[in-house]
TrEMBL record:
The chain crosses the membrane at residues 15-35, 47-65, 77-94, 106-129, 135-158, 170-190. PROSITE patterns: VIT (PS51468). Keywords: Membrane, Transmembrane, Transmembrane helix. The keyword Lipid metabolism does not apply. This is VIT domain-containing protein. InterPro entries: Sorted_by_XrtN (IPR031005), VIT (IPR013694). It comes from Nibribacter koreensis. Residues 294-426 form the VIT domain.
Length: 773
């Protein structure tokens, strides 16, 4: 345990921990050999002493496995079983003083241990020859035989106990039966899951429409349960039996999740085999089904020993502008023992809708270095060249679909840490008479044990925040909290009147204005129901009567007209899909169409399916298509839906079934914002308007008005061009550079040396707090 706590390994050679444990076991064995009261040749009679030695030997084995891994870290249930069985072996010498019932429990645990260590002994069988040769080197190779020795001693000791008292056989047999029955049940479920996967793959193969890759169909229709997860994660997270003569194979390294050793998976892959899926398909399925996109990011270096030790959140809240600016300063540590093995930290930040990253800093030699803005491709090339080839200090932040960004930091050296900072400008969400500030959370190196300091400041101090009880305020408008890291928290404050102040820069003024949705006449001639697992039967039965007088379609491999006769059958079929990718390009008359959907938490992104026929067909029609009116039941959107909304390909609104009924009854729908010099911040009920600079307009507002406008304006102009990858136009790049915002076409990168910046064609970043002109 000590290495996990950062005690035993710090500043020492990695093998020191093993030799300490090995020395204890060897010393104890030495004492046994030369003790006059112990005769090792009588194995069963000396079981009391030998069980203690074998427990010490197992500790030494697992300690050695940390540095010379024969198998990966045990899954949680295996850790618990090993601990409990080891305690039972330690308690064996006390068996005569235990009540009868506890003796039965003790033998039950040892019976289970007999089966478990039989597995380990067979697992290590191919290594016995190597272990025999390795025994010459200080006896280290003998560790291979510890499980086999444990099996022998358990078998003899349990047999002796059962001969003395035959009634104890109940405990032994029950203990052996439990893991065997568990394994059989798991094997049956494994085969059933494997058959389900193959059936779905075959159905996709014979389907008349194969617009999407087969992994999409599998992700949509495969239920998310622990067996299916292990089937998909085999070779990625869970060790599996190799095809050649070896007991195992190491998981692929293109999925950044902790590698695990699960005896049940090993057994299943040995006896029943693995699903017929390629590695990249498994990764895509995990991204889509289990929201594992962060783990699937491309890595240039390992990050296995990294952890996040400290988080500092500093936020400025501007109530009269309905926006905030947040800086997250993170410290990432490398806990790898020794002095060799630099690693790469990768983080994914989840941003509130409409938010934009406006700054990036990396501390180099104790000095904060600001980010430089460039195109996304130049930043990526510079980072890969310096990290992958020259192995020097950069950091980069890239825009990702679905309101996320990724941040990379390199290098993080063993027994050292790196510090970086990311700045995010966000609109405040309005709910009734309150404004909501949401914490910006992230995925990345483990935050277990991380501390966090939060400092919130309300500009002008005119409004009081409604904060959790753990916050304290020592002066008006300032709130702080120091605690362990928490991901989910938010604060609220009353809605205040909008400021008349704007921000002026580059000959333009940027000003906030209220934006109440304007309802326009709209009579849908065709309605498309985008059905998935998020829909409830109540919602389905409520929506259908509202649409009886309209032509209604669902997409079930092809557009299908919905009728009273087939609606229940189609709903039952479509509700099994964990997510949906509704093909907007199949809508024949988008100007008169209405899509009614309900969002799921997961789905593929467009970049995941960029090489598919679905993407090609979507791209062909996207340029000339009318933005489809889209009603979302509730507030959740899938990553697919978020991207469509950000790129203004949807005339979007959301609400309850009652809101939908009202719109349909009155034949109305919220109108789209048509002004090319205005962007809508839907969650805030506002719009930012850009006008030619006018001295009459007060210009003391924050520069974040320009940054939010630029980001949303860029997405608005990119729109359907995003799918053709022909949106790298000079005027768009200039707009991103002027506002210093991370977008689909621009990234921020920090490089250590000036020549790196010049060679990469990077430009100096603007400060996140530009002085108003």
């Amino acid at each position: 345990m000590l290495p996990d706590w950062g005690i035993a390994s710090e500043g020492h050679d990695p093998m020191v921990n093993f030799f300490v444990n090995y020395a204890f076991a060897a010393l104890y064995l030495f004492i046994l050999f030369f003790s006059p009261s112990v005769k090792i040749r009588h194995l069963v009679k000396q079981a009391d002493y030998l069980f203690l030695f074998l427990v010490m030997g197992l500790i030494s084995c697992f300690s050695l496995n940390r540095d010379l891994p024969i198998f990966q870290k045990s899954v949680e249930w295996l850790q618990v079983v090993l601990l409990v069985v080891s305690l039972a072996m330690m308690a064996y010498p006390l068996r005569k003083s235990l009540p009868y019932l506890l003796r039965q429990v003790l033998l039950l645990l040892l019976g289970a241990g007999l089966v478990l260590f039989t597995y380990f002994a067979l697992y290590l069988l191919p290594f016995y020859l190597v272990g025999t040769i390795g025994a010459i080197a200080l006896g280290i190779g003998l560790h291979i035989f510890i499980p086999a020795c444990t099996v022998v001693l358990l078998f003899l000791a349990l047999g002796r106990e059962c001969r003395k008292d035959p009634s104890l056989k109940i405990g032994v047999i029950t203990g052996m039966a439990i893991p065997i029955i568990t394994a059989v049940v798991f094997l049956v479920m494994w085969q059933d899951g494997k058959n389900s996967i193959q059936k779905l793959l075959n159905e996709q193969q014979i389907s008349q429409t194969q617009d999407l890759p087969r992994w999409v169909s599998l992700s949509q229709n495969l239920s998310a349960n622990p067996i299916h997860e292990r089937l998909i994660k085999t070779d990625l997270v869970y060790q599996a039996v190799a095809d050649e003569f070896a007991p195992f194979q190491f998981p692929e390294k293109n999925f950044d999740e902790l590698m695990r050793h699960d005896p049940l998976v090993i057994l299943a892959t040995r006896l029943l085999g693995k699903p017929n899926l390629e590695t990249n398909e498994r990764v895509k399925i995990l991204e889509s089904m289990y929201d594992a996109r962060h783990h699937a990011q491309e890595r240039l270096w390992s990050g296995d020993h990294l952890g996040t030790s400290n988080v500092i959140t500093q936020a400025q809240i501007f109530p009269e502008y309905r926006l905030s600016y947040t800086e997250k300063t993170l410290t990432v540590d490398n806990h790898k023992p020794g002095s060799w093995g630099q690693e790469e930290g990768i983080y994914t930040f989840y941003l509130p809708e409409g938010s934009v990253v406006t700054s990036l800093s990396l501390w180099i030699n104790g000095i904060e270095e600001k980010g430089y803005l460039t195109t996304q491709s130049k930043a990526d090339t510079a980072y890969k060249t310096i990290v992958g080839v020259e192995a020097r200090d950069p950091s980069v932040v890239h825009w990702q679909e679905g309101n996320t960004v990724s941040v990379r930091i390199f290098p993080v050296l063993p027994q050292s840490s790196r510090r970086f900072k990311i700045g995010v400008t966000s609109p405040l969400r309005q709910e009734g008479n309150e404004l909501i500030y949401e914490n910006i959370y992230f995925d990345g190196p483990s935050v277990q044990g991380a501390s966090e300091t939060i400092a919130l400041r309300v500009e002008n101090g005119t409004a009081n925040l409604n904060v959790p009880a753990s916050f304290e305020s020592k002066q008006p408008g300032h709130y702080t909290r120091y605690s362990s890291y928490e991901q989910d928290w938010s604060v609220s404050l009353p809605v205040t009147p909008l400021s008349a102040q704007g921000f002026t820069f580059g000959g333009f003024s940027y000003q906030l204005q209220p934006h109440a949705p304007v309802l326009e006449p709209f009579q849908a001639t065709e309605v498309y129901l985008d059905v998935n697992a998020a829909w409830t039967e109540h919602e389905w039965d409520t929506v259908w009567p509202l649409l009886k007088d309209k032509t209604v379609y669902v997409y079930a491999n092809e557009m299908t007209r919905l009728t009273e006769a087939n609606r229940d059958q189609l709903f039952s079929l479509l509700q099994q899909q964990t997510f949906s990718l509704f093909p907007l390009h199949h809508i024949k008359n988008p100007a008169q169409a209405l899509v009614i959907s309900k969002g799921t938490g997961t789905s593929p992104n467009f970049k995941d399916i960029k090489d598919s026929r679905f993407s090609a067909n979507f791209s062909k029609t996207a340029q000339n298509r009318f933005a489809v009116r889209y009603f979302n039941i509730g507030h959740q959107l899938s990553p697919y839906g978020k991207t469509l909304r950000e790129l203004k390909l949807l005339q979007y609104t959301q609400g309850t079934l009652s809101d939908l009924n009202q719109l349909l009854t009155k034949s109305q729908f919220p109108a789209a914002l048509q002004d090319p010099n205005a962007v809508q911040l839907a969650e805030s009920g506002l719009k930012i308007v850009r006008t030619v600079a006018d001295k009459e307009i007060p210009a003391n507002g924050p520069d974040h008005l320009m940054r939010l406008f630029a980001y949303n304006h860029l997405l608005q102009q990119i729109g359907p061009k995003y799918f053709e990858k022909e949106y790298l136009e000079t005027h768009l790049i200039d707009e991103a550079a002027q506002a210093n915002v991370v977008s689909p076409l621009s990234s921020l990168v920090v490089l250590e040396q000036q020549e790196d910046m010049s060679a990469s064609g990077l430009r100096k970043a603007r400060t996140a707090w530009a002085t108003p002109a």
